[in-house]
Structures
1.
Amino acid sequence: MTAPKAYLAGPDVFLPNAAAQAAAKIAICARHGLTGISPFNPGLDLTLPPAQLWRQIYLDDIAMMQGCDLIIANLTPFRGASADAGTLVELGWFLGQGRLVFGYSNSAEDFAARSLAQMAASPDPAPGLEVENFGLVDNLMIQGAVEYGSGSSLTLPPDGRSREFDALDVFELCAAEAARKLGA
Amino acid sequence: MTAPKAYLAGPDVFLPNAAAQAAAKIAICARHGLTGISPFNPGLDLTLPPAQLWRQIYLDDIAMMQGCDLIIANLTPFRGASADAGTLVELGWFLGQGRLVFGYSNSAEDFAARSLAQMAASPDPAPGLEVENFGLVDNLMIQGAVEYGSGSSLTLPPDGRSREFDALDVFELCAAEAARKLGA
């Protein structure tokens, strides 16, 4: 049987050591019988004009996603109360395609608490906006996309302690869960 | 011909006057030959336990999305550098389903500038993380989802001046563009 292909979505591509991080995730996937596909593309022609370069990245990412059976999304909060924006579009795409949706976060903090911290650092764009508070770690559409998109829960630090942004142990738990579900 | 059904995604549901905002958007859609479907649900049983309530909201939203031909997403930045998290999952879902994707933002500010402001208010979770800078108003996956998901651009304030969070004139331009594309 061919190893299931997992699209490794996440803001990891913005890390200074993005290539090494991608390689580490792919190695973890291999240990669990999955083929990891990272959107980090060292072959990208960075001399292209910006308007051409972003479209190339978009089309490359969509093409990679088309070739994958599942997504393992890094949903660690990024520049705001919630997960990385591009990662969330990709998560929704897999759900819409009826492909399997897995995700993890290195943060164990409650979404409502993080939203309030965000609002303290940078006030809301209008007064009186509600704070979603269901005891989840992010917006309910994210939690739902994972739960109804794979039957697994969002993978969180099992000891309740938030990890460094680039830590990989929670990712590995998530990859193991995906492999288990897929019988990989 | 039946009017195309537009799912009106956005953090508008968190507004204190969410019901009135939903009604105003639905009226604008009607003027342009579209049936607006708002995720705001005044009939929700708020006495349900949180773990049951958020799943009910998720399933209601997905059911509404299933019944729609297109999404008109409010992509105005919300609690961070980017658009609302739940809205982005829904945007990706429509793209994955091959349904039409339209979106607008009331902010005219460059994504890189907003990312830097976010980082100043609330430092990045790791040092050296790159700032995406393609002269767009949000993450390239959002811009790409709209552009490749409908052939239209993300609708922005035509005069380059950011609007109030709940302003509706840019939404109306977006609804008009969607109606034009659909021949509604």
Note: Chain B touches chain A through 68 residues (CB under 8 Å).
2.
Amino acid sequence: MGDRGGSFTLGQIAQALGAVLEGDARRVITGVAPLDAAGPDQISFLTTRKYLRLARSSRAGALLVPADVTELPGPLLKTSSLQTALIALLRLFYPEAPLSPGVHSSALVAPDSRIHPEAFVGAFAVIEPRAVVGARARIFPLTYVGEGAEIGEGSTLYPRVVVREGVRIGRRVIVHSGAVLGADGFGFAFDGSRHQKIPQVGGVVIEDDVEIGANTTIDRATLGDTVVRRGTKIDNLVQIGHNVEIGEHSIIAAQAGVSGSSRLGRGVVLGGQAGIGDHVTIGDGAMLGAQSGVTQDVPAGEKLFGTWGRPMMQARRIWLAEAQLPDLVRTLRAVERRLERLEARLGIAPAGEGQGDDA
Amino acid sequence: MGDRGGSFTLGQIAQALGAVLEGDARRVITGVAPLDAAGPDQISFLTTRKYLRLARSSRAGALLVPADVTELPGPLLKTSSLQTALIALLRLFYPEAPLSPGVHSSALVAPDSRIHPEAFVGAFAVIEPRAVVGARARIFPLTYVGEGAEIGEGSTLYPRVVVREGVRIGRRVIVHSGAVLGADGFGFAFDGSRHQKIPQVGGVVIEDDVEIGANTTIDRATLGDTVVRRGTKIDNLVQIGHNVEIGEHSIIAAQAGVSGSSRLGRGVVLGGQAGIGDHVTIGDGAMLGAQSGVTQDVPAGEKLFGTWGRPMMQARRIWLAEAQLPDLVRTLRAVERRLERLEARLGIAPAGEGQGDDA
Amino acid sequence: MGDRGGSFTLGQIAQALGAVLEGDARRVITGVAPLDAAGPDQISFLTTRKYLRLARSSRAGALLVPADVTELPGPLLKTSSLQTALIALLRLFYPEAPLSPGVHSSALVAPDSRIHPEAFVGAFAVIEPRAVVGARARIFPLTYVGEGAEIGEGSTLYPRVVVREGVRIGRRVIVHSGAVLGADGFGFAFDGSRHQKIPQVGGVVIEDDVEIGANTTIDRATLGDTVVRRGTKIDNLVQIGHNVEIGEHSIIAAQAGVSGSSRLGRGVVLGGQAGIGDHVTIGDGAMLGAQSGVTQDVPAGEKLFGTWGRPMMQARRIWLAEAQLPDLVRTLRAVERRLERLEARLGIAPAGEGQGDDA
């Protein structure tokens, strides 16, 4: 997390954030904290009006708030873009550790790999032949970069990542510890007595600005490439099968899984533990709720929920109706008995015949 | 597993376990085995009366049994606390490998880290600057301990664990291989065109006597700490999101996931593959069944099941009623036809009007 | 992936595959590609007649097709066993990298381990005392092989696998990066105030020709062994609990989980994210759909789906009927009102009495 000892005046902070200060510019702030934990030397922030009451009772020395908030006393930093200002605030107090370029003496770097002189390679990292590591890339300790793999400029592989042979990673990509990129896809042909392995000879392409969570696995393609497009963010323990393509700026929450050859559009959102069957196409901007599953194509913009995913509102209505289902069964039996009594009174033949009328 | 070659007399075993022996104290036992696999040189155990029949036919040379079991022939070791005695029995025959303190010559230990002289640090382990490793802690090979991280007395990090910078681990904690503690939380702000990363500058605190399974991931907080309290046991492949707090003595089964900022009370039990949404509070002693999901707060002591978790008994009744659902649809249609016939006979206006009466 | 620069004539390819060539045997092919991506120098393949139209419009220089396909122009390679021929084709153009036997100078190999002279041990690998590595086995960099563990002939441990002490791995087994074999099973005994750890002193046995996916975890047994039998294929991020036994030639898809002491038969198929409770027996050839769960025994050959798994067809029918459930509730209420009206007209006592008739 780098240094946490920074302290700044409210004037300096306002300037760094491009925010308008209402308060004493010389007041010194030594850290950032949530509303309920911040003390008089710390700055806090209001991300939603829902927390206005909490903000009012906060002991924070200053508050970063949306420009239209007026109900609060004390020093305020007002901004028209709270999230962006908050990011700048966190980066101000918690700057990223400066890059120390160079290859650690214990790292094993193949002579015919190409490591940019401004790149960092940590202890016990392994860089195999013909791999390429770009400028300002950081390969943390105990990470493996396979033969011919490419790590783009400014990308970070945290400790103990595996990038298998031939995998191509773009610029400013972040890969968290334990992730495995380019293991074999799960492909077998049953020959009547055993599962024969289908060689998985394709690759993996991770485009710029993607983030990949801890212990996530992205398999190499059988042929061609498994692709994660620009700006997509993938959480921890996610499984991406072989030949999958995930569109730009999508969000894949933890423990979700995408089976082989499925294609997700741009801006798709998968909730935690969601699952996509194989050869499924998910349209742009579609959202799947947590724990939902789909085995059929999903149109753009659709919001689905549940196993064999349904539209969210329908899923909710069914869930509510289900609570009445056991009573429903009983009520329906009572209704049938009442009908029989009425039919008997009117001398109408029993139900079987009535059904027969339609057949 | 240490040495498995130990052999003990029944007298020695009784003494070690604080059990009462009924049988020949000089009989020699060379190992422990389940009821159906044990031979005459081995001791077995009866954890529940359900297995009495199996115990009767066992070839085991002796049996460890609850004090009130009388129906069995042959040498018995009787105890009022079977589980505790069984643990002692296993530890007797399978003692933990003795600790060999010291830092392996291939480990990379930063000069300004503090490794207790009674700690063990294995081959190719990396201990970054200002990290602290307590007495009798064991850092197995290929494990990474980040800058300023703390590993408490008697804790074990198995091979290939990642503890990122600043993470604090208490005493007697066990972390299994592949676990990642302190990767970034999954936090982004969409600015209309791309997901901006929200710096994750908080930490992770693991209290005393916690166990963390293989390939489990526990993310660092955005601000503040992600906390796992004393005595909680977490299985493999579990995801714990940023700013989550898990109370004391809880049990989290494999592949469960807890989303950001949720708080679990004391003694909570999550079944395998269960999922908790973000910002959810789970009361003390609540239990969630396997594969269940909740996005709303759960009161203390509640037992829930299913996606959008329901009380266990209700979930079970709905599940049983669902089996009749397809028939229900057909029956209800038949009922409507019968009603129409009755209404026609009596000259009553059709259903539409009847419904209108209530509107 | 080895060399991709190979080029072969159609005659050579036909011979290597045992296929019948219809076309010019001297035509040169430089690679393999899917139907829609292949160019005139590449060969493609038709795995199912579903893609006949795509095959007709393909620009591929030749097509590998089933023997009974006649509708296609251009050079054809005909085979009676397409999958096997396809595997041979991929292996021809993408041969596995040749094994380079020997122990890397940076690997840490215990003096009393036994590494076959034809085995490969990569950089920063750790082989603990008394471990055995067979002929032509490949231990990739950063992998850990614990004390007394055995790796059979021709097996591959990709970078950063953990094989804990005493685990036995058969021949031609493939273990992908990040997998952890032999971590402690999840076993605790609650003593009223805390969870006491039950020592996990058993082992793990992986039989011949098994494949284990990236970041998958297979726990050691409490006593005895956790067993994965011959020819079974396990995908990524799968959890196999302690004392589980999985029969021969089974398929376990990604993110599935099997709880402690469950036994799966031969040829069982678990879909992605499926979950099996503890102490459950699954019969030979049973199939569980994706995201399904079972806590009861499953007979051989059964196909189940959904949480508390149901037969696949029943699950589907319920799912379809559920869509009508909210309407059903409303319809049933309307039916009750109509009944009341009829009963009133006929001077029949209200429903309560009718139900009483049965009681």
Note: Residues 166 and 353 of chain A are 71 Å apart (CA to CA).
